[in-house]
Amino acid sequence: MSVLDNDQVENLIKFCPTKEEIEMLKNYNGNKEMLGKCEQFFLELMKVPRVESKLRVFAFRITFSTQVEELRTNLTTINDATKEVKESLKLRQIMQTILTLGNALNQGTARGSAVGFRLDSLLKLSDTRARNNKMTLMHYLCKLLSEKMPELLDFDKDLIHLEAASKIQLKLLAEEMQAINKGLEKVEQELATSVNDGAISFGFREALKSFLDAAEAEVRSLISLYSEVGRNADSLAQYFGEDPARCPFEQVTSILVIFVNMFKKSRDENARSVELERKKLEKDKEKANLSAKKVLE
Fold first, then answer.
1. Contact at 8 Å (CB) between 78 and 227?
2. 173: which of 128, 131, 182, 211 lies 20 to 30 Å off by Cα?
3. How many Cα atoms occupy the beta-carbon half-sphere of 239 within 13 Å?
4. Domains, the chain, ranges and CATH?
């Protein structure tokens, strides 16, 4: 375990002497005790061959576990979200209901016998009014489901990881994966180069060998997961009949999150309207009973 944290190592890297400073100190033949504290510090660092390279490797080693864990968590979130969406029977039934509604609305037109719809059409449900113009299609959809298939109203509970996945950008994950691979390459390079350092780097090499064995296995596992996630991310767009090149994972999840939130909002608004109507009917009934009572009196 390191006695230095990453910030301390990064600060040491910043204070490493430049090539010019190293050359100047190498050529200095005077009394070293007469040098300033900074120069004396440089001289101590220069006793370690390629000190900056070793410190960078050291910094990578310190942050490696955290980097890998964060990347693995994000990759797993994408996998989980993709699986949840594709395996949700409730979501599938809702999509089928939306298609049926769309065909009913477009009856008699060329679009009245569609076998599917573009995913971004889901976002128009809250903008489109039903024929009576009193409610949006989203409200009507929720009302219909409430009456005919109430068990579908909580479909959002199937999609536990969707919102978290929608905040993840695959491009950034690719960059993180690349950074880990490059970091590991530098560890391998420094380990190979330090063989010629002699006894001064013996402890460093032993520690690095141990780290490298575990890290390489970890990265192999991560690469496998990363490849799997790439395939699954593309399959999500394909599941909805979209081209992953035109409608990438980020767009699919973003649309679905917005749809889920619009659905929940309309569902809750409908429930409040039903409750208000129920209370109104109760009040009207009470008034009618009071009026009838007065007449009888």
1. no
2. 211
3. 21
4. 1-47 (no CATH), 57-78+159-247 (1.20.58.2220), 89-157+249-296 (no CATH)
Whole-number CA gyration radius for the chain = 32
Alpha-carbon distances of 258 from 20, 209, 253, rounded to whole Å: 57, 49, 9
The better pLDDT of the pair 224, 50 is held by 224
For residues 275 and 270, give the distance between their C-alpha atoms in angstroms, rounded to a whole number: 9
Question: Can you read off the two tokens belonging to residue 62?
Answer: 């310190």
| 6-23 pLDDT, tens digit each | 777 776 767 666 677 666
3-state DSSP: the chain helix, strand, coil percent, rounded to 5? 80, 0, 20
pTM: predicted TM-score of the whole model, two decimal places: 0.79
- What are the tokens at 238? 């394909």
DSSP type of residue 17: P
Q: Which two tokens stand for residue 268?
A: 């809750």
Structural contact between residues 259 and 123, judged by C-beta atoms closer than 8 angstroms: yes
